[in-house]
Every structure is written in structure tokens, then in C-alpha cells.
Amino acid sequence: MLQINTKAPGFSLPDQNGNIHTLEEYRGKKVILYFYPKDSTPGCTKQACGFSELYPQFTEKGAVVIGISKDSVASHKKFEEKYGLSFTLLSDTELTAIQAYDVWKEKNMYGKKTMGVVRTTYLIDEEGMIVKAFGKVKAAENPQQMLELV
Q: Is-above-0.90 flag for pTM?
């Protein structure tokens, strides 16, 4: 996990509609950047739906929510449509942002070691600096936790 008070790494990734987004385009806004393991799994769905429900309150506070996983653009589109998600999902199939933000880790699933995304959320300020970082977040509680911070 990256340290607070450091510059957030830039990225250039496609969203669920195939449009490219960069961190730089959000300069002047607070960014809730969250990394999650997989579209349409129980924890990831709870987290995404929570962010989607609270999205109007985030925008009122001048913040945007961006979710990143290694799923494809097509997978993100299905996830967005199935749950009516109201924010940007970025596809990082090459793991560039996932590795830059230090969330690609060894995980232990049922005694088997695998590499995967550790659920992590960063709060990035208007100047592109990391002001908060949460590792191994609880999916259902994370959206409310982040809203209280912004």
C-alpha cells in the first residue's frame, strides 16, 4: 500500500464504455480510488452498490468515485448495467495501476497461494496527493467510511 502524503501515481485506463481516463483529468476534485478483486462477486457487488447509492452525496462534496479491477471493459459494462452503477469503473488488464498502487499481492485462498488484488481504497486530494489509504477494507462499510472522510 502506498504511503499518505505522497503523489498518487498517474494512470491511463479505459472505462466500462471504452473511454480512456487519466488521474490528471480529475485535478481539482477529491478522488476516491478503490481497487477490488472481481466484478459481480458478493463483496465487490456490495462495495460497488454502496458507492453507487451514495454517489450523489460524493458529488455534492466535490468528489468522484473510481473503481479499478483487472476485469475487462466488457465485464465492467455488464457489472454496471446489472446493478445500475453510477460511477466510473476502469479496466486494468495489464495491472499497470494495480501494481503502481501496490495492491497486487499474494493471497491465501483455502490454503492455496495465488496473486490477486487486495481490496484497497485511497483518498486523493485536489492536488493529486494521497491523503488517506485503507488496506483490506470491509466491502460493505467502505462507501460510508469514505463519505465521512470527504
A: yes
